[in-house]
Specification:
Largest sheet: 5 strands, antiparallel
CATH topology of the largest domain: Jelly Rolls
Helix content: 10-25%
CATH superfamily of the largest domain: Cupin
Structural class: alpha+beta
Strand content: 15-25%
Number of strands: 21
Number of domains: 3
Length: 461
């Protein structure tokens, strides 16, 4: 379908698009009020790899030629501009960008777009709200919001206490979404928009933590180790992008910082890789040298990426090492001549121990039935009738579920799904679980029904 044919289709639609003079908030109210399951879905021409920018157009803002560090890799549909043809009510559901990247969006012509954005620090709240609203989708895929099929009204966002912002984008205007920012929206009529992803050094910590949908074979994945190495292999990324003397700290422990940070704090002793020039902890990569003073460390050390690649260390003209004690500075050789130096503050604070992930193992099989103790707990190791009781109590609000290393309460029941609240955890970590799940039954050690109310209690009218 050509753009002319698409516009003709939108003009022929029975549901007339809003007038240009209509108040945006009134248009918003009309949009949500008109949503119903029986309506004819609008057509949205999305994800068409192309551009309307020419080589001579807006050199700094040409979406098809953004000079960012993401150009180190080639990802169709991510590093290349895509066109979007919209019509009245054509919508895009809540999602974050692939790998939680930045995005820049431009409306070339036509009617405006209406946007909703949730700040990154409120992303867990939105995810919990979506999990509560769409438990079956969450059961099928924990990253179901990346499917872009879940629309949430502002009224429901307010109901769940999710903060959000509105934006009204007119033709000729740009909208930029930041890493891990959930956004959704709709079009007010026929328009042509263009969008592309990009990255800065600020994005890298988000990229290292980004989750991907595992049920879609074409989910975008970026090998962050390889990506970080490429940043320094080609110096033409330019000082205008990474500073006059760019550097990155990225270690196996998950710690990340870079030269664009205003305040740099890296715990423990750290070193610069002789090969890729990325910094890492000595203790994490070379544990045998963890207690060696900086002056006695080898002049050539490789990071975990270069070690895995089988590279051989090259000699340094001076040591690139940071000291642990007190506040010290590190100098690194940044060129073959060894003349360029940089300074960074090293914090003396010790790194907090990372809590290990709790792995639930199934209970050992026991001969015969093993009914519970005096508090009335029932274990899944008992006979068939007791297993039925386990399932019964799982669907009772207030029941206690005991796993091998933790305890949870049944906070809500919805059909064959229960929402569990883990003891000592924030409500943000509540989870919807299927009571028919074999994996859940294997994890459960015991189930206790809610404690009965005291017989001595009286009601005063």
């Amino acid at each position: 379908m050509s753009p002319v044919e698409f516009q003709a289709m939108t003009d022929a639609a029975t549901d007339k698009e809003p007038e240009d003079t209509e108040d945006p908030l009134e248009v918003e109210r009309r949009f949500w009020k008109g949503l119903r399951g029986t309506m004819d879905p609008p057509t949205y021409g999305a994800d068409i790899v192309s551009t309307l920018f020419s080589d001579a157009d807006a050199l700094s803002w040409n979406l098809n030629d953004l000079n960012t560090i993401l150009r180190k890799i080639d990802l169709p549909g991510v590093t290349q501009s895509m066109l979007y043809f919209g019509m009245w009510r054509a919508m895009f559901a809540f999602h974050t960008e692939d790998m939680d990247l930045y995005s820049i969006n431009y409306v070339h012509t036509g009617k405006p777009k209406f946007w909703y954005g949730v700040p990154p620090d409120a992303a867990p709240q939105l995810e919990r709200a979506a999990q509560s609203m769409f438990p079956e989708k969450h059961h099928e895929c924990h990253q179901f919001l990346r499917h872009k099929t879940s629309l949430i009204s502002p009224a429901r966002l307010k109901e769940f206490g999710v903060p959000f912002y509105r934006a009204f984008q007119k033709p000729g205007e740009f909208i930029i979404t930041f890493p891990a920012t959930y956004h959704q929206g709709f079009n007010l009529g026929f328009n042509i928009a263009e969008a592309v992803n990009f990255a800065t050094l600020h994005w890298i910590p988000y990229g290292l933590k980004a989750k991907v949908c595992k049920c879609l074979p074409d989910s975008v994945r970026i090998d962050m180790d390889s990506f970080l190495t490429k940043i320094f292999e080609e110096p033409q990324c330019g000082p205008e992008l990474m500073g006059d003397d760019p550097w990155i700290f990225s270690c196996t422990c998950g710690k990340y910082c870079s030269s664009n940070n205003h305040h740099t704090e890296v715990e423990e002793q750290w070193f610069e890789c002789s090969r890729c020039k990325i910094w890492a902890h000595v203790r994490c990569v070379h544990s045998d040298l963890a207690d060696t003073v900086a002056e006695d460390l080898p002049q050539s050390l490789l990071c975990h990426r270069c070690l895995a690649a089988g590279d051989r260390p090259c000699s340094l003209s001076s040591g690139g090492v940071g000291r642990r004690s007190g506040t010290a500075s590190k100098s690194a050789v940044r060129s073959s001549g060894g003349k360029r130096k940089k300074e960074a503050v090293v914090s003396s604070k010790k790194k907090a121990a990372k809590e290990p992930a709790i792995v639930m193992s199934p209970p050992k099989k026991a001969k015969g039935a093993s009914k519970s103790n005096e508090v009335g707990a029932i274990t899944p190791k008992s006979a068939t009738k007791d297993k039925a009781a386990v399932r019964k109590y799982l669907t009772v609000k207030g029941s206690t579920i005991r796993f091998e290393n933790m305890e949870a309460k049944v906070a809500a029941v919805e059909g064959k799904y229960i929402r569990v609240h883990y003891k000592g955890e924030s409500a943000d970590n509540d989870e919807w679980l299927s009571i028919t799940s074999k994996e859940l039954r294997q994890r459960i050690v015991a189930v206790e029904p809610p404690a009965p109310k005291s017989k001595d209690s009286t009601t005063t009218i």
